[in-house]
Structure to design on (250 residues):
């Protein structure tokens, strides 16, 4: 069973006695970029750890999977990464018996930073579950045929927001969940995989777990087109369900 955590950018996947917590887009080390822009913040990674620990306790989660963009730096490892990333995962390994990562487009050289007990999956995703299968991936690259074919995909990467205006014209953007159907056979073909499965599947696009990262407005022109899957033309974005973190359908 896959369940959205109320008021959080997180999912719980339960199967038998196992409970897996899914989060995406941590962007650890974002504080350095914000400091360069004049925003002085306390170490935000500490707040992220506290939120993850609280969810682990509330839902008795024994497994954590991070769906990419663990760190904020792209194409390199910053000095802040050497401090924050190992500490972050060492701390969570005291909470979860199993910690796993699917790398995102920000995660070049991430393997050098991870403790040896953290399992690093390929960037094209992995299928979890045995009776109810769920494909999990970051979303910046084509998923594997197995991820596409299992009929339910979860990804991050998009950082979708819903832009709202009040009666005075002031704008605000709120993080949103996206639930949409996709054509399995067509997506397999678009991804260059063998078209050996047909039917409709469901895709879930997660909001970023890091509340400080920006994102594009999903209700703007071409707002859905982010990453190969959502830009493939195989996802029924017209009839998608979009929800704020508090459950409000927009």
């Amino acid at each position: 069973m896959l369940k959205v955590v109320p008021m959080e950018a997180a999912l719980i996947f339960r199967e038998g006695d196992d409970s897996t917590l899914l989060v995406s887009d941590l962007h650890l080390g974002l504080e350095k970029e914000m400091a360069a822009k004049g925003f002085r913040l306390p170490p935000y990674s500490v707040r992220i750890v506290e939120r993850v620990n609280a969810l682990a306790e509330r839902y008795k989660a024994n497994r954590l999977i991070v769906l990419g963009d663990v760190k904020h730096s792209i194409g390199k490892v910053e000095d802040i990464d050497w401090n924050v990333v190992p500490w972050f995962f060492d701390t969570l390994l005291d909470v979860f018996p199993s910690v796993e990562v699917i790398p995102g487009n920000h995660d070049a050289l991430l393997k050098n930073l991870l403790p040896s007990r953290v399992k690093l999956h390929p960037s094209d995703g992995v299928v979890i579950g045995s009776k109810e299968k769920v494909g999990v991936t970051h979303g910046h690259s084509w998923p594997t045929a197995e991820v596409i074919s299992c009929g339910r995909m979860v990804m991050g990467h998009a950082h979708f927001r819903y832009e709202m205006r009040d009666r005075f014209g002031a704008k605000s953007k709120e993080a949103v969940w996206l639930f949409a159907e996709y054509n399995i056979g067509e997506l397999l073909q678009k991804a260059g995989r063998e078209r050996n499965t047909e039917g409709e599947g469901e895709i879930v696009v997660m909001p970023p777990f890091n509340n400080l990262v920006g994102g594009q407005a999903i209700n703007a022109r071409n707002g859905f087109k982010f990453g190969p899957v959502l830009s493939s033309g195989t996802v029924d974005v017209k009839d998608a369900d979009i929800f704020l973190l508090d459950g409000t359908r927009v």
Observations:
- The mean pLDDT is 91.
- Residues 2-244 form one domain.
- DSSP finds five helices and 13 strands in the chain.
